[in-house]
Predict the structure.
Amino acid sequence: MAYQIDYAYTCHTGKVRTNNEDNFWCCGVRLPVHNQGVDGILAGHTQHWQLPMLAVFDGMGGESCGEMAASAAVEALGGFYEENKKTLKKEPVVFLTEACENMNEAVCRYNNENCIRSMGTTMALLSFSEKAIYACNLGDSRIYRHFQGKFQQISTDHVIGGKMLGKAPLTQYLGFQEENMALEPSIVEIGYQPGSSYLICSDGVTDMLSDQELQKILDGTETAEEKVGKILEQALERGGRDNVTLVLAQISGYEEKNILKRWAERHSTGR
């Protein structure tokens, strides 16, 4: 069995903020440092054996620090991915752990070089290997799984518990200085299921829409592109107080008819 991943994504500044501190990685596509999001909804498709990755980053820090943190992390992820595909194929958890360390070092290095103490970014990532899907996150950007009418958060919210005014401080993020605590990404392995879908999003989505409202949209029969459009529209209608970034991936399965052709394609790309 082979699996196709149809994905759609968008990144919108929102209705309140004037700058965009979010970023994403969608099979090699990302935003430049200074940007105003993307126009409309973008979409694509890939195969599981190509080892694709989809990710969302939500920068923090004020001024332009948040967008710099998100951009530094995305750039580090891209370089690490290109240089370590063999590790990703053989040891996905090792790859993800080391990728998080690499991204964290990149953001911390920028902080130190520019004498910044309050810059960082969340990260929520899906990595598709040949045998399983891996969800990895740091911070409060979320990953949800939808399958057969069940909608479940599979990421971990790394926030301080208890009641407090405003947003709860993060306990894990990229740009995390490790003098007192270790960087500990949440990593979850999920088996492939044709018909399942995965939503990755910043809190510009989850602060505006409840899990029940998100599930109602994903319960529909529309394409990934149409569902992303609906989520964005509702987040903006509710006020769009933050940047809004989301990626939706839908999994379908098919029987391979030409194994030799795929073998040749995989080896020609070094995978």
Remarks:
- The chain has a mean pLDDT of 93.
- The domain at 2-268 is CATH 3.60.40.10 (Phosphatase 2c; domain 1).
- The CA atoms of residues 194 and 252 lie 4 Å apart.
